[in-house]
Design a protein that fits this description.
heterodimer, A: mainly beta, 4-stranded antiparallel beta sheet, globular, B: 116 residues, mainly beta, 6-stranded mixed beta sheet, 0% helix
Chain lengths: 114, 116
């Protein structure tokens, strides 16, 4: 069964460093998303992406964050200068339809910022 | 503001018995969708069941059913004949139809344990 895959599963980085989290969505899906979950807190929406551009972003998704689909298969989340509070589990998701489509999630990438 | 509240951080059920997980939500929209997602340990979240707000009939998927009370803004999940594989975190989520694609509002989750 097709799956959304994410790498790395866990990354440890120093504060101020750049991090790239990678996702391979399900191949025929058109909509892509990043969510994050700080330990003990809710899963929060970061950004949605469709047709090679951001369709919506939350307040969390500030200038230090960016997304791109560099090669038609990968979908990446870049955090330019990591802060301690960026430590979280980051989930990628994809769907084949818009608002009512089921989201398929990856297993998550755990980011630890020291 | 839209919110989703799951008041039970942890629940436990005996194998083969029934358990109900609670969820309440708040939205000013009249058209929306509600979801229950399951996240087994170290695995991805998968959709368990979906309910469209305009439908009065409660959604059912095999052993999983919901009790959708629109006026009370309540959306509980009932798991019948619980199995060991049902042990997981369960997240309730809201998607406003008038909102953006995929901008799910999640609750904090309920950790379900199943005792053999």
């Amino acid at each position: 069964e097709p799956e959304v895959t994410q790498t790395p599963s866990h990354q440890v980085t120093q504060m101020g460093q750049e991090v790239i989290l990678r996702c391979v969505p399900i191949s025929n899906h058109l909509y892509f998303y990043w969510y994050r979950q700080i330990l003990g807190q809710k899963v929060e929406f970061l950004v949605s992406f469709y047709n090679n551009e951001i369709s919506e972003k939350s307040e969390i998704f500030d200038d230090q964050f960016s997304v791109e689909r560099p090669d038609g298969s990968n979908f990446t989340l870049k955090i330019r200068s990591t802060k301690l509070e960026d430590s979280a589990m980051y989930f990628c998701a994809s769907s084949d339809a818009g608002r009512t489509g089921e989201l398929f999630f990856g297993e998550g990438s755990r980011l630890t910022v020291l | 503001a839209q919110t989703v509240t799951q008041s039970q951080p942890e629940m436990s059920v005996q194998e083969a018995e029934t358990v109900t997980l609670s969820c309440t939500y708040d939205t000013s929209e009249s058209d929306y969708y509600l979801f229950w997602y399951k996240q087994p340990p170290s695995r991805q979240m998968i959709l368990v069941i979906r309910q469209e707000a305009y439908k009065q009939q409660n959604a059912t998927e095999n052993r999983f059913s919901v009790n959708f009370q629109k006026a009370a803004k309540s959306f509980s999940l009932k798991i019948s004949d619980s199995q060991l594989g049902d042990a997981a975190m369960y997240f309730c989520a809201l998607l406003n139809y008038g909102g953006s694609q995929g901008n799910l509002i999640f609750g904090k989750g309920t950790k379900l344990s199943v005792k053999p």
